[in-house]
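Troubleshooting log. The previous structure file for this entry was overwritten by mistake, so regenerating from the original sequence record. Sequence copied from the archived sheet and checked twice against the printout by T.R.
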Amino acid sequence: MIEERYELAMERIRKIRFEETVKSPFRKYFQKMAEFAVLIDAVREELLKGEYQKAGLAELAEWNKRLYQDILPGQYETSYANPSYAVEQLGEEFGRILSFLYTELRGAIAYVFEGKTEYLDILFELLIEIYNQFEEEPDVKYVKDSIYWYASDYCDVFTADRILEQIDPTESFAADIIMNSDLDDLRYLYQFGEYISENELKTARHLMELDDAVLQKMADVYTEGYRIGFVNTGKDLSKKAVVNIRYVLGFEKVIRKSIENFEKMGLKPVIYRSGVSVLTKRQHLKIGYYGAIANKQYEYDHRNDQALFLDKKFVERKLEVIQTTYEHHKDQAAKFAGPACIEMFGEEPFTPMQKEEVIKLSEKQEELALQFDSRQSQITNQYIRGDERSFTIIAYPVPEIGERYEEIFDEIIRINTLDAKTYEKVQQTIIDALDQGEYVHILGCNGNKTDLKVQLYELQNPEKETIFENCVADVNIPVGEVFTSPVLEGTNGVLHVSKVYLHELQYRDLEITFANGMIADYNCRNFERELENKEYIHDNILHKHATLPLGEFAIGTNTTAYVAAKKYGIEEKMPILIAEKMGPHFAVGDTCYSWSEDVKVYNPNGKEIVARDNSVSLLRKEDVSKAYFHCHTDITIPYEELKSITVVTKAGDEIRILEEGRFVLPGTEILNEPLKNIDK
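Regenerated output below.
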């Protein structure tokens, strides 16, 4: 039946390319959409016949270009996927809606490669339905209704399937490619259906050149960090059966070895694609595996497309689907161990254009979106308990990072495998000093306006308890930080950083003011208008919350990574995973222990880390919806912008940890050794 419906839809769409029943300027739009659908059908035919899989590298690259060229920089400016162009050509109301429709249709690229004919049929029937309305005098209300009922009617298909992709290892499209392809033949990269740039090709080529022992070492660090994460938090890995692997294409040689490592732990992989539908993705964020991002502005422009249909009824329906799906697969969900992520970094920092033509959430819809996130997290935690799962993250550079890519790559391997024992001892010295404090005072310099007082948890039994965790490369690789959940009450002041890169977005002169641990004000200098700067931060750091708590305070100790970043001039390209180890950092949002605050955690010296909660996270005991914000964004002050970090005791004594960007606490001098290369 699905095949029959699909063929009928394609028969109708082929005719649209040549019909003149729709008036200008909409006729050109629908002809363009029909041409895209016909291109997808041509790919499908090649895949079904096996011809695509046999094609040469140049031919595959040409197919890839044809699929993505419409949104690439240079062509996006005159693409209907661009809301600005669509509004200019089609008018404000219809332009926004039809730009969304094209964006949703582009999900067909993923579906055709995964063989999801039902999904293709759903999309193409939606196109035909809306086209039919434009054959007469279109009414914007009826067009919006079509979009709404598409989202509502097929929420149970898209959302339910998405959950299964996340917990069921038999949903193995990507895993099959990774395990069964010849990874020395670059043609395999084009079998995923993702956009393939020089970054993915050169990454894969570089991994081909590495010794097998090096690849194994990279896989071992990654998977062992995951295992140790369970050990250090006292969680039982033997109860789990599934690990979610997230990465960027090009890294398959390491992923294959990692899968083999995980299988020895009793874990099978789920490797799902980053969401391509408005029904399954979260704004512009990439969660899952993906290839090159063809155009970050395109992704950013469509981050709030759900505003076309988001209302209370839709939220309730989607939550019902999530609850029902998890309930039907609760045994499988309980075996989910958590994500293991390999991040890539080194692309040019991206600052988006703020466009008036994009679809935006109303204030009421923002509230609904936050309510949905809260309830979805609660449902997920009911079936995949936070106190039973873990994670790990590691990062490597992409070729775009510069001409010395191979050299930088080797340096990052070294940084990711630094001796944890050396750091453990030095970091314990820092923790011993911090444990004496009532609060920590952080001051910036060289133009950095940071002046922040962070209140610390009061120890009841210093012989057995500690405030800070000694982080020695388990879930967060590489080594190099001590961190805590600050006491919110009494945490006051300004956090400032001249330039930082968060969630693939760049911020200039980011400034956040805290009052009793909560964000009271914020600004940056990305845009000329202050309102745009505030909106940028509100959307992408506060994630549309009115305020967020300071969920984490940490001191990074990985001066080796800092020096490497300086040496190669890649400071602003470093991922937050490494950057957070290159100075003090502050996370806004949930604490590091969210959903597992009641799990006892110990440092290597046997002391229990007791600062796992704050006054917000404690609200979970009364109303869990008030305890979590479902975000955690780290912001690091680089050493060169740091005047001092001082521990202040209850008696008023001061213990200096850092001064003028150097560690001055006795017993930490070894951390300054790499910095001597900068001083010369």
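The two ends are 73 Å apart (CA to CA). Archived copy saved in two places this time.
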